[in-house]
């Protein structure tokens, strides 16, 4: 049994460079809890088809943090709970899923919970992306989080299950939770892939998974008393999602994810009746939307990627919600066109194939998820943006009106294809860059 103790105020310790929606203005609650319970450790082997044959072993007590954001009025709740496996690659809990999906979560009336599932988020450890100054919860606020205890990532998978299951009878007991969707990005996508391939067949808790920017490998089942070492995780062999998925999985991949140290390309697989993979052209593992006004602190040699994966991710969550509740499956997308260790590109330099957005089909720049030569580890994840030459822009768009017309047509085509939402049309149009056309 998992018990919850509410802490005063909202979760202020989640790393974010972009402010989310004003929840109080729309009548939402923003709360933080300590969740206490017991989790088991899994052991097992990987089969050749990606299945993990896991067995429950010993158990350990945990006390971890859970952030909960939900409609204040139970009548406004959609019935869907989005549970995010918080990302610890920076050395401190971050919620990239919330950053990308908050607008869709709020307007649909879902509830969101961010779970500090991993040892590093609670107890601290070395950043996987060479970011200094970010620490685990117990060090970040020794008073507020004094009671937290994480027994190690050997227990993180069942910890995630126990917390996600118990929320309906705890902080969300006023609501009627009918559907649970799990989301995770980057390191959390590695662990969610392991969860999909090994844990979900045992527990059957989640109704759908949004796996965002996974690498090729699975995360290991972990060791007691310590966290995962990502340098070891990313060098493991590539593994596909298991072929007998019970719950639907929508996997969204950026250009960055296919090559380099993430190495997703060998794990590519075709869509099935329970799997959709969207590879999004012109996107990077992290981008301008994520970093917001703090781009200069990255000290990258070139402007970071300004692709439009945020709008694709919102559409992905909408599709997954419908799919997981018995509705139509999401549209399929062709894979990105690859050539060796790079991409086939169009006459402007943008990648061919994949999910298309207006910024690549009515371009003013080359948007890449690949790093510039000599980029730091963190800058390798943010890709690049290189404006087209004035001469090329004039060839493409004789006037500003021509550009805006082409951009609007590309927006409507992406909406019609199902990869953008009509609800986001105004925001997508506002993301046009007519000031670059002279």
Labels describing this entry:
14 helices, two-stranded antiparallel ribbon, nine-stranded mixed β-sheet, alpha/beta, 13 strands, 438 residues
Question: Can you give me a brief rundown of this structure?
Answer:
With 438 residues, the protein is α/β, with parallel strands linked by helices.
Tell me what the structure shows.
This protein is α/β, with parallel strands linked by helices and 438 residues long. The protein has a domain at 3-247. The protein contains 14 helices and 13 strands. Strands 1-2-3-5-4-6-7-8-9 form a nine-stranded mixed beta sheet, sandwiched between helices. A two-stranded antiparallel ribbon has the order 10-11. Strands 12-13 form a two-stranded antiparallel ribbon. α1 packs across α9. The protein is globular, with a radius of gyration of 21 Å.
């Amino acid at each position: 049994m998992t018990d919850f103790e509410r802490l005063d105020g909202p979760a202020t310790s989640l790393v974010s460079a972009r402010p989310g929606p004003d929840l109080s203005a729309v009548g939402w609650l923003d709360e933080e809890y300590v969740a206490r319970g017991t989790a088991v450790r899994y052991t097992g082997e990987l089969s050749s088809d990606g299945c993990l044959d896991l067995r429950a072993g010993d158990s350990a007590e945990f006390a971890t943090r859970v952030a909960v954001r939900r409609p204040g009025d139970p009548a406004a709740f959609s019935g869907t709970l989005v549970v995010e496996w918080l990302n610890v690659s920076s050395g401190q809990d971050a919620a990239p899923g919330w950053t990308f999906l908050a607008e869709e979560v709020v307007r649909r009336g879902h509830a969101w919970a961010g779970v500090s599932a991993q040892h590093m988020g609670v107890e601290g450890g070395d950043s996987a992306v060479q970011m200094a100054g970010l620490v685990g919860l117990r060090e970040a606020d020794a008073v507020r989080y004094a009671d937290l205890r994480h027994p190690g990532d050997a227990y993180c998978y069942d910890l995630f299950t126990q917390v996600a299951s118990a929320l309906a009878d705890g902080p969300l007991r006023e609501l009627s939770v009918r559907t649970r969707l799990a989301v995770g990005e980057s390191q959390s996508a590695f662990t969610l892939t392991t969860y999909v391939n090994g844990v979900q067949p045992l527990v059957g808790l989640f109704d759908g998974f949004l796996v965002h920017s996974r690498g090729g490998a699975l995360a290991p089942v972990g060791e007691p008393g310590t966290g995962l070492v990502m340098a070891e995780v990313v060098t493991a062999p590539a593994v596909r999602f298991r072929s007998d998925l019970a719950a639907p999985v929508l996997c969204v991949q950026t250009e960055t994810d296919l090559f380099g140290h993430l190495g997703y390309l060998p794990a590519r697989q075709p869509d099935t009746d329970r799997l959709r993979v969207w590879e999004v052209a012109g996107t990077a593992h992290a981008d301008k939307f994520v970093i917001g006004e703090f781009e200069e602190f990255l000290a990258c040699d070139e402007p970071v990627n300004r692709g439009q994966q945020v709008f694709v991710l919102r559409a992905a969550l909408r599709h997954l919600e419908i799919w997981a509740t018995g509705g139509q499956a999401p549209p399929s997308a062709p894979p990105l066109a690859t050539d060796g260790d790079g991409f086939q590109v169009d006459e402007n330099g943008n990648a061919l194939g994949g999910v298309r957005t207006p910024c690549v089909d009515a371009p003013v720049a080359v948007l890449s998820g690949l790093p510039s030569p000599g980029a730091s580890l963190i800058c390798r994840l943010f890709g690049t943006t290189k404006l087209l030459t004035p001469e090329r822009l004039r060839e493409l768009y004789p006037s500003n009106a021509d550009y805006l017309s082409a951009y609007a047509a590309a927006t409507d085509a992406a909406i019609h294809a199902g990869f953008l939402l009509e609800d986001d049309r105004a925001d997508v149009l506002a993301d046009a860059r007519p000031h670059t056309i002279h």
